[in-house]
Amino acid sequence: MAEKRNIVIKIGSALLANQDLLTPRFGFLQRLMEDVTRLRSQGYEVILCSSGSVALGLRIVGETPETAGVSDKQAAAACGMPLLLNAYKQVGHEFGIEIAQVLLTLGDFEDHRRFLNTRNTVHRLLEAGVVPIINENDSITTEEIRVGDNDRLAAKVAQMVGAKDLIILTGVDGLYDRNPDDSEAQFVPEVTDVSEYMAATQGKSTLGTGGMATKLQAANMAQEAGCTTWIAQGEVDRPLSTVLSGERRSTKVHANPNPLSGWDSWIANRLQMAGSLVVSDRALSCLPETKVPITRADIVSMDGDFTRGDVLHIYDKHGVERARGLSDFTSEEIRVLTNNPDTDADQLLGYRTKGEIIRGANLVPLETRHLLWDAPAAIA
Ligand code: GLU
């Protein structure tokens, strides 16, 4: 492979922490890091998105996965993180791999300056030949400002660094068309449209946060950013290279051949929206082919308190979310503009403006390509 290719690997808690003792699973880590070494020698830049801090810290705070509440888990994450990184450090040392810890919160993705800053840091680490180990900073995040699970965190990271591949290592061998305990369940080796399987995948694992549904949401986010996702069992030798080579079974979620640009993807893939607009059919009639600006005359109603540069949901009159867009005005300014439709915008606002609430370049049609995210789940 001549050019370096970014790959993100998401590793679930159950692979990293022993289910009963809640201690690091060094055997797994050895198999993983050995394969990371192999991938790096093939020209991949590897970024790990690792769960496990909560599970590894639970005993220290005197809790179990069943008894721990939110603040117990936040404290457990603070205790478990050094244990997790120490385990990676020790095993990485055996293979000559330097590792680094990067703890992120939702704001590091949603605020564009912080997004760029975080991306620069990850790129700099890769340039130095270091393997970044990324996790959500669970100890300080509250439910309202969490990504919520590491499946989607990994997809956000993949989107951020322009990765072409995302491997989600988990305790099952991939996706089934219904509950895998059902004897009729069929394995699904390839997926293009994740929405076909969303209903069949509710439910979650006991040690981590995600279930198959969050994995599919993550895969959807990745595919729209032009990244292929594999969902695979992690409990094997060469857990990564056997997935990429197709030597063993996994579920492959294909990248969209016409991915969103980095900017569009940043706008569309958001967990927290500052507000919303209901707009006229005129503004939406040319979507998705042509993006016309949304003007004040198009606004039917508005919700939320937001500022310039915030991303908004754009609904049609039937309540269907049709697009997302970056507002050029504060909600207060929009209120002034729409309440005085016949007065010049420059005069109302006291500065020169074209009066476009959302410019065409800052409008991303969702159509069928984007699966909406749920509110973040409670911690781990
Ligand atoms: N951030 C959590 C942890 O380190 C895991 C969340 C998840 O597995 O989705 O334990």
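qc> Confidence is low (pLDDT under 50) at residues 375-380.
qc> done
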